[in-house]
Design a protein that fits this description.
The protein has helices spanning about 55-70, 80-90, 110-120, 125-130, 145, 150-155, 190-200, 220-230, 260-270, 285-290, 325-330, 345-355, 370-380, and strands spanning about 30-35, 75-80, 105-110, 135, 170, 180, 205-210, 230-235, 250-255, 270-275, 295-305, 320, 335-340. Strands 7, 8, 9, 10, 11, 12 and 13 form a 7-stranded mixed beta sheet that branches. The N and C termini lie far apart (about 60 Å). Helix 1 (about 55-70) crosses helix 13 and helix 2 (about 80-90) crosses helix 3 (about 110-120). By secondary structure, the protein is an alpha/beta fold. It folds into 2 domains: about 1-185 and about 370-410; about 200-365, 3-Layer(aba) Sandwich (Rossmann fold), CATH 3.40.50. The longest helix is centred in the N-terminal third of the chain and has 15 residues, at about 55-70. Strand 10, helix 10 and strand 11 (about 295-305) form a beta-alpha-beta unit. The structure holds 2-acetamido-2-deoxy-beta-D-glucopyranose (2 copies). One 2-acetamido-2-deoxy-beta-D-glucopyranose binds near residues 276, 297, 341 and 342. It is found in: Golgi apparatus membrane.
Length: about 400
C-alpha cells in the first residue's frame, strides 16, 4: 500500500499531520450507511442524477468507499433501513430497541440523515456507541450548533445540529476549519503524456460554464454576452428536447456529458467560469487539474446561513466569501481568479488577462489519490473519540495564532 510518510504542504494548514509514525495498519470493520440515499429519507437525490442534479456528494462517498477498501478494511454498505437493521443486528419493526450485544463495527460512516435513522432504530444504545460514528457533512458543523445545551440557550438549534459529538467527528468536503475533520475527495491527476497533450491542444479562447442545471444560468445574460465578445462559450446543461431558454443561442451546449467526455472538453478549454452556484463543489478542482483557469465571483457581503436561503438551517454560520473559498484561498492565481462580477471593468480585465497567460494543470496534494489515502489512514489510525483524551492531531504540530474578539457591550 502506498500510504507512506510525506511532507505536509505548507499551503494546507488542515491536512492531517501524516508525518508521524503510524502503527502497522490494523484491519477495521466499517459500516458505511449513506442516509441520504435511503427511500426513508425521501431520497430526492437519485431522480436528479441523470438530469443535472448535484453529484459532488456522490463523488465523495465513492472516494471514501474506495479508500476504505484499498486500505484493506472490511466494509459493509447500507442504503436502506432494512440493511441498516441487518448490519447492526437490531430487530426489524418499529425499532427503538437498544442493541443488546456490542456494536458489530469499529467505525460507522454516515450522514445527518443516517444519524437520525440510527437514533430512531438503535434507541438509547446510540449514545453509548456514538464515539464510533463519523458524519460526512459537506459544509461542516460549528461547535455552537453541535453542543446541545449551548445551541438551545443561544439560539443555534437547527434541524441538523446539536448531536453533542466531538467536532472532529464531522468530516467535510473542503478544509474549512480544524474544528471538523477534512475528509475531501479525489480528483484525477494527469500524467506526463497527458500534460504534454494539453500543452499542445489548449484552445486559447474557449470557455466552459460551470452549471449543469439551466436554473444556474438564469439572469447571467450580461456576463455571457461580455464573455462571448472574447471567447467561444461551451455549456454542459441538461435538456430534454430543446435548448433551455436560459442558455443563449451563441452557447455551444453539449448537454450532460459522461465524465470522460467532460474531461476531454476541460482539457481543451482555457477558462472554466462559475456564476456563483453551486457552492464549493468538486468541478472547479477537476477543471484546474485539467489546466483550466477558474474564474469565479467574490461574494460581498459573504453568503452564509444568516443571509442566504441555500445555507439556511445548516449547522454553521461560516461566511462563504466566493463560490469556492478553498479555490480562492488555497489555490489562487494564476489558476483561480476571484473578482467582483458586477464590476464590468474588473470582469473584462480578468478575461483579457486569462487569454494572455498560460497555466499548467494543477492539483493540490490533498486531492490526489495518495493524499486521500494518507489522510483516511491517518484518521483511522489516530482518531479515537471513545477515550476521554483525544491526542490527535498531536499538540506539537499545532500552530498557535492569536485572535482579537470584539465584544458588543449591551
Ligand atoms: C497516461 O495516461 C493515459 C490515459 O489515462 C495512458 O493511456 C498512458 O499510458 C499514461 N502514460 C504514462 C506514461 O503513464
Ligand atoms: C450583482 O448585483 C446584483 C444586483 O445588484 C446582485 O443581485 C448580485 O448578487 C450581484 N452579483 C454578484 C456576483 O456580486
Amino acid at each position: 500500500m502506498c500510504v507512506t510518510l510525506s511532507i505536509v504542504q505548507p499551503h494546507s494548514p488542515f491536512l492531517c499531520p501524516c508525518c508521524m509514525p503510524s502503527p502497522p495498519s490494523a484491519v477495521t470493520s466499517i459500516l458505511v450507511h449513506v442516509g441520504f440515499l435511503t427511500e426513508e429519507s425521501g431520497d430526492v437525490f437519485s431522480p436528479k442524477v441523470l438530469k443535472g442534479g448535484p453529484l459532488g456528494e456522490m463523488v465523495q462517498w465513492a472516494d471514501i468507499l474506495t479508500a476504505l477498501h484499498v486500505l484493506g478494511h472490511i466494509v459493509k454498505i447500507s442504503v436502506s433501513l432494512k440493511e441498516l437493521h441487518g448490519f447492526l443486528g437490531v430487530p426489524p419493526g418499529r425499532g427503538s430497541c437498544p442493541l443488546t450485544g456490542p456494536l458489530p463495527f469499529d467505525l460507522i460512516y454516515t450522514d445527518y440523515h443516517g444519524l437520525q435513522q440510527m437514533k430512531q432504530h438503535m434507541g438509547l444504545s446510540l449514545r453509548k456507541h456514538k464515539c464510533h460514528i463519523r458524519v460526512i457533512d459537506t459544509f461542516g458543523t460549528e461547535p455552537a450548533y453541535n453542543h446541545e445545551e449551548y445551541a438551545t440557550l443561544h439560539g443555534y438549534r437547527t434541524n441538523w445540529g446539536y448531536w453533542n459529538l466531538h467536532g472532529q467527528q464531522y468530516m467535510t468536503m473542503f478544509p474549512h476549519t480544524p474544528d471538523n475533520s477534512f475528509m475531501g475527495f479525489v480528483a484525477e491527476e494527469l500524467n506526463e503524456t497527458e500534460r504534454m497533450f494539453i500543452q499542445r491542444n489548449k484552445v486559447n479562447n474557449m470557455a466552459v460554464v460551470y452549471g449543469k442545471d439551466a436554473g444556474m444560468w438564469k439572469g447571467k445574460e450580461n456576463f455571457l454576452a461580455v464573455l462571448h465578445h472574447y471567447m467561444e462559450i461551451h455549456g454542459t446543461v441538461y435538456y430534454e428536447t430543446q435548448r433551455p431558454p436560459e442558455v443563449p443561442a451563441f452557447v455551444k451546449n453539449h448537454g450532460l456529458l459522461p465524465q470522460q467526455e467532460l474531461q476531454q472538453l476541460l482539457r481543451k478549454a482555457k477558462l472554466f467560469i462559475g456564476f456563483g452556484f453551486p457552492y464549493e463543489g468538486p468541478a472547479p478542482l477537476e477543471a484546474i487539474a485539467n489546466g483550466c483557469i477558474f474564474l469565479q465571483p467574490k461574494f460581498n457581503p459573504p453568503h452564509s446561513s444568516l443571509n442566504h436561503e441555500f445555507f439556511r438551517g445548516k449547522p454553521t454560520s461560516r461566511k462563504v466569501s466566493s463560490q469556492h473559498p478553498y479555490a480562492e484561498e488555497y489555490i489562487g492565481r494564476p489558476h483561480v481568479i476571484t473578482i467582483d462580477f458586477n464590476n464590468s471593468e474588473e470582469f473584462n480585465a480578468a478575461i483579457r488577462e486569462i487569454m494572455k497567460i498560460n497555466v499548467e494543470p494543477f492539483l493540490p496534494y490533498e486531492y490526489t489519490c495518495e493524499g486521500m489515502l494518507e489522510r483516511v489512514h491517518a484518521y483511522i489510525q489516530n482518531q479515537d473519540f471513545c477515550s476521554p483524551e483525544v491526542p490527535f492531531p498531536p499538540k506539537h504540530l499545532a500552530r498557535w495564532t492569536s485572535s482579537v474578539r470584539e465584544w458588543n457591550l449591551r
